[in-house]
Specification:
This protein is α+β, with helices and mostly antiparallel strands. The chain has helices at 11-21, 46-61, 65-77, 84-89, 94-113, 134-138, 186-203, 306-317, 330-335, and strands at 82-83, 124-128, 144-147, 156-160, 166-170, 179-184, 221-232, 246-253, 259-266, 280-284, 293-299, 347-355, 361-364, 370-380. The strands form 3 sheets. It has a 6-stranded mixed beta sheet with strand order 1-2-6-3-4-5. Strands 10-7-14-13 form a 4-stranded antiparallel beta sheet, with no helix packed on it. A 4-stranded antiparallel beta sheet has the order 9-8-11-12, with helices on one face. Strand 13 and strand 14 (370-380) form a beta hairpin. Helix 2 runs antiparallel to helix 5.
């Protein structure tokens, strides 16, 4: 994992509006360079604090040998991670049963903090921090439990042993001792959060529900831009956070002249330095008025409050009017960012400007962190 730049508060909204503005930039400018932006205030994430409490409880529960073995078996058998609430629900031992109540309360609090509905379900997950730890875990070494640090640049993260003692784990290298990492199911949260954002945008006429049906009346189908290959140099995820949860925002003006944003999930793009060949539809040109759109790629983190994100997006986009050209309104958007924005927000990964329907071949991102190859693709109506 390559080293990453410092997290920039408000990156999602700021960079998205650079895209809405549509002005070609030789490189990405930091939102902090724009006048009118409030100075970021470092504050602990309440989501992270809740996770820390769960990590301590889980570590203590591992003193029960039967429960410890149940968690170990689940962790070793999982492809990625284990639903901790579901695992505790199947526990036939006192330690697992005792953990259920605290897990349910913690999950309700996290859903509320992230602005997600109760129907989202369980978000708490646990996984073995690295494949290199499997041998020692299999040999019976009792693992410590940690929470992926809210700050991706953290030098250490606290890990708890079965007696409740905290140990500082160096994030620069994978520890030898087995380590369970407690985390949020960011993919599940992102799907639910995307629905929250989409519904809020649709209510203001800034997006169609579900990103809307394609307009096929003119030609019996619709033109799209398809991604045939993509790679990023740094996916903004250190080792203790596992695979990235990547998505892109496609922005422009809709047929009604209103600013529009469509979210495109890229669940396959989990690791940097890897070329993926998804053959994925990125832009549905029937959703846009002009032959021009911009793409902002983000990596989602677990502290995002989707209600706050939806409010910031709608506040910003409602000020954008169609005057035949894109109008930069970055300062207004950054000013709309909530003061309570969590520290672990979506990370800016890369952006591509002035993508047209005829764009073909390799296009490098504006910040030099990624590239993709694209081609026009006509989706035939059935």
């Amino acid at each position: 994992m390559v080293s990453r730049p410092s997290k920039r508060r408000g990156a999602l909204i700021g960079m998205m509006l650079f895209a809405v503005a549509g002005t070609a930039q030789p490189a990405i400018a930091s939102p902090a360079a724009h006048p009118g932006q409030r100075t970021p205030v470092s504050r602990p994430s309440p989501v992270h604090a809740t996770e820390q409490g769960v990590a301590r409880s889980l570590a203590s529960s591992l003193r029960d040998p039967r429960w410890r073995e149940q968690v170990r078996t689940a962790a070793l058998g999982a492809v990625r991670d284990v639903d901790l609430q579901n695992l505790a629900a199947t526990a036939g031992n006192p330690a697992g049963k005792e953990l259920r109540t605290s897990l349910a309360a913690a999950n309700r609090r996290i859903l509320s903090l992230k602005g997600l509905p109760a129907r989202t379900g369980s978000l708490l997950r646990v996984r073995l921090a690295a494949p290199a730890m499997r041998a020692r875990l299999s040999a019976g070494v009792t693992p410590w439990v940690a929470v992926a640090a809210a700050d991706d640049d953290a030098k250490t993260l606290p890990a708890y042993d079965a007696r409740g003692h905290a140990h500082a784990v160096d994030t620069a290298r994978t520890p030898e001792r087995p380590l369970y990492v407690l985390d949020i199911d960011v993919s599940k949260a992102h799907r639910a959060g995307s629905a929250v954002v989409r519904e809020a945008l649709a209510a203001k006429g800034l997006a169609a529900p579900g990103n809307g049906p394609a307009n096929t009346s003119a030609a019996g189908g619709w033109w799209a831009t398809k991604v045939t290959a993509v790679e990023v140099k740094d996916d903004k995820e250190p080792w203790f956070k596992g695979a990235a949860e990547t998505f892109s925002l496609v922005t422009g003006f809709g047929p009604d002249g209103k600013a529009r944003v469509d979210s495109v999930d890229m669940p396959y793009l989990g690791y940097d330095g890897t070329v993926y060949r998804p053959n994925q539809i990125l832009v549905n040109w029937s959703n846009y008025k002009y032959d021009l759109a911009d793409v902002v790629m983000m990596e989602d983190d677990d502290g995002t409050n989707y209600k706050a994100l939806a409010q910031a997006l709608t506040t910003a986009l409602l000020t954008v009017t169609d005057q035949g050209a894109y109008i930069p309104l970055v300062n207004a958007v950054l000013s709309a960012m909530p003061d309570s924005w969590f520290t672990d927000d979506p990370d800016y990964v890369e952006s591509w400007y002035t993508l047209s329907r005829n764009s073909t071949g390799r296009i490098d991102g504006a910040s030099g962190n990624g590239w993709m190859t694209v081609e026009p693709y006509f989706v035939q109506q059935l």
